[in-house]
Amino acid sequence: MATDVAPPGGTIPPYEVRRVETDPAAAASGHHHVSGVDTVDPDGGETHWTLVQVVAAVRDGERFVMGGAQGGQAEDLEPSACPRCRLVTLSVPAGGRERSAS
Ligand SMILES: [Zn+2]
Question: Taking the model in full, what pTM does it have?
Answer without folding.
Answer: 0.75
